[in-house]
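Why predict the complex rather than its parts? Because the way molecules touch one another can change local conformation, and only a joint prediction can capture that. The input here totals 434 residues.
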Amino acid sequence: MTSTPLTRSEAKDLTRRKLIRAALAILDEEGEAGLSTVKVAKAAGIAQSSFYVHFKDMQELLRVLAEEGGERLRATMREARRKAREHPGDLGLHRETFRIPLESICRHPELLRIQIRARHDPSSSLRDFAVETAAAYREHHAADLAALGYTADDERDRRRLEMIADGINAATNALAMGHLEGRYPDLDEAADILTALSRGALRWLRATSNHEPSDPS
Amino acid sequence: MTSTPLTRSEAKDLTRRKLIRAALAILDEEGEAGLSTVKVAKAAGIAQSSFYVHFKDMQELLRVLAEEGGERLRATMREARRKAREHPGDLGLHRETFRIPLESICRHPELLRIQIRARHDPSSSLRDFAVETAAAYREHHAADLAALGYTADDERDRRRLEMIADGINAATNALAMGHLEGRYPDLDEAADILTALSRGALRWLRATSNHEPSDPS
DNA sequence: AATTTCACCGATAGTACTATCGGTGAAATT
DNA sequence: AATTTCACCGATAGTACTATCGGTGAAATT
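Output of the joint prediction:
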């Protein structure tokens, strides 16, 4: 009941945050096509025209959204990496490597949903961001695998490591989405499967590296 | 130079095909947000208002597009399955199981792109179709794995098989997209990796089935 | 206390699109 | 040959949205 007296800039910043929150919610619920200055402003409780006090246009708001989302994703990757470094060589850790991204996705599923959508939508303003994020994620994961002892010396092995990382990443996203949709209740089970998938790939990598050109049997 | 005299219904059908083709191209290049009766009609070479001679509205055109795309996808699945049945127990075939979808994706990449986009876009008219297609693909693949001898008897194993199929499917899509983007030049290599991934998962499945509750080491 | 700043407002011009309607001429039918 | 059908056309009313502009009052500054 105590009225909180805000300075003008504090109030402005609050409104800005409201706009960003509103945009994120609409983006998640209705997609980029559902975004409009009308809807975002109304959801934030201000007039449509006041939207432009805070952002030059919708494009700029989306850019800000992408930057903030990217920061959150990078922080997650850093955390996962740090944990992996704390216990090098730990086998149970291999599994942990997969639990962390799964959990982080489930904590903020809207970020992944938006990213996946933008990644494949040529009309999306967030497309470049999404493509870069996906590439960063892929390389991060490839580095993780390399850290587990599967260093790639030549071009071919490096590419293979990247392909494996790409595949595992995609599988991670798919299982996380399935979990959110209620199909896969147990995240640990998902982590186990990802571990098993990556073990299979790495076993193959070891078997074919500097040996036969290509024989997965 | 010989003018082909078309009956009225032939001409109408031709225009209809042109509209569908134009819509598919625009959908792939600009996304669903870029679709409009103006653009589609113009690209097909008719007046915007004539669009409505062929379709009730854009929604209906999208439905038709989804149905045709779905038919093509189902045909691919049937073909893959048929081939797998021809050589049961063939180990090299396990690899073939992955090459066929990869090739089919690369033959019509726009179908997958559109599907992935729609799958995660709440505003998409094609969403239901995309979700159903993804589910069908997942179950198809789970059945494929079961056919390889990893029959799932209880609820847990069935779910695990579905999770593995889901993961492998996602990886398949990711590698196909990477191939199309020029990152992975060799489709065979991609098929090898998918084979290796699935071997790892199935090995784990065999190791934990009806034994320990969950231990991936 | 007087003045300035500025976050927000309502109104509105401009843009892009949808979907309908009456008209037209060639194909199809009689 | 006369009549009907219909794929397509241009015009247009209606809808949703963007982005600007002048105005307002409370906060901030003088």
